[in-house]
Amino acid sequence: MYQHKLKYILGAACLFAMQQAHSQGFLKADGKLIVNEKGQKVILRGVGLGGDMLQEGYMFRLGNIGQQHKIKAGIEDLIGPEKTKTFYEKWLANNTRKIDVDSMARWGFNSIRLPMHFNLFTLPVEEEPVAGQNTWLDKGFNMVDDLLKWCKANHMYLILDLHATPGGQGNDLPISDRYPEKPSLWQSEANQQKMVALWHKLAQRYANEPNIGGYDIINEPNWGFDDAKDIRGTAEKTNAPLKKLMMEVTAAIREVDKKHIVIIEGNGFGNNYNGILPAWDNNMVLSFHKYGNFNSQKAIQGFLDLREKYNVPLWMGESGENSNTWFTEAIGLVERNNIGWSWWPWKKMGINNPVAIKQPEGWQKLVDYWAGRGAKPSSEEAQKTLDQLLENLKFENNIKHPDVVDALFRQVQSAETKPFINLTIQGKSTVINAADFDMGRQRSAYYDKDTSSYQFTPGVNTQGNRGHAYRNDGVDIKVDDNGPYVFNIEEGEWMQYTVNVKQAGTYSVKLTVSADNGDGRLSLLNGFDKLTDTQIIPNTGGVDKWSTIKIKDIKLKAGVQQLRVLVDKGGFQLRSMTFEKE
Length: 582
Fold this sequence. Notes:
One of its GO terms (biological process) is glucan catabolic process. This is Carbohydrate binding protein with CBM6 domain. This protein is α/β, with parallel strands linked by helices and 582 residues long. It has 14 helices and 26 strands. The strands form six sheets. The chain has an eight-stranded parallel β-barrel with strand order 3-4-5-6-7-8-9-10, surrounded by four helices. The longest helix has 18 residues.
């Protein structure tokens, strides 16, 4: 099954190979567009390496353990400081490797956004042997060098993003690994000067590297400067300290690097530009981040107005964490408006990213202990689980999500559907899992009444796949010991399956279903033509009690065709369909 899915991923990448703006020299801002050295418009189609240099607890299902230093402390408690140090060395070695970058390029990405943690490049202010000086660390720079080398090999751009600043740039603690008991970036001149010095050092090192796409100088500042109660900075009117610091960083970069784009982000997680513009540099790009709102022109009109007024390009520097439907709509929206994007993240635990990290056996036991819900595992037990996590980090051991990649690229351009896996009806008996419906847009491959999450839109409580398992489309899927199944089925919903029928003839179909009532109804269609009358789904004794119902006398033609399951009335669960030649 994996090999077949991978072929479709690669097929999508080949289809759009000609559309990718592979690196053609230094990028620059040209009026409202980002262009390459040939003056050609570049649409950045990128991915962010969240969880690489900087861990955030949600990526690993850690509940309330958000900051990386808290994750590290939890690991130290279990295996000790020396083994924890070894764990993090292996983490940084395993999480992103050349095989990851090769796959990104092959699947259609032309850029990478690297979320950097300052502590891989320099010591925290309070740990400097000499106050006011900067101790430079090789680790971070060497990691950037390696990533840049892999990007060059794949003709990709690498965008450097300072994700965790000295002291931390906001009240959302995990995104900057902030210690709230210590002075923040905004409360410490020493932290600010260290940030300026770090960007000067980075720009000096990479000034002549055309595959560096730009410097994203501060990620998602979220701070109330004029009103401390505005903890996210979304209502800030002047943003004066933020503008001052970004101007100082820009000046430091320009002392050693006149070529690279400087990317700025507003307050309020990158989106509040009050008081910040006009731009103070002629090679500058405005970034905005977009999560959990509608994908209408209205949703980005404010940024389009800024672009028009100040004649600067836009870049959606971070987006994602939603359903495939939302992904396709969001990317379609920004690309129609000549805006590139970077998806977040490349990998984590979960279904809504291109690849996923498998949860190792014993992981939940560690999480329960850290949350105060369970007994402390032995150091040997914890080490075994953590070692398995390190192996699971590697790309070859990741779970690949072809449906996500398809939604990010092919579905943006085409409403056509593709098989999720190869479905061939042949021999005496063929089982088709209900969850293996086609890949494609909502209303093309399937129809579900709830396809996306609008978590930042008041009054809208949709989720997409409510089971959060198997694949990232709108259809609700759970997985148990017997595999995936579709649940929360509602009237009017449907799923399409592209099948290759090897032999024309009369078939019967056994539906594996469960229900705690006898109200459910479904029909089978070939395209829009009914193959069966409406079938009653009986009460099987509960949603956890599975049974089969048999439908006879189904006429199928030979060849490739699209079968559909249409829900005439919901209230049941569907695991599979077994086709048998009569």
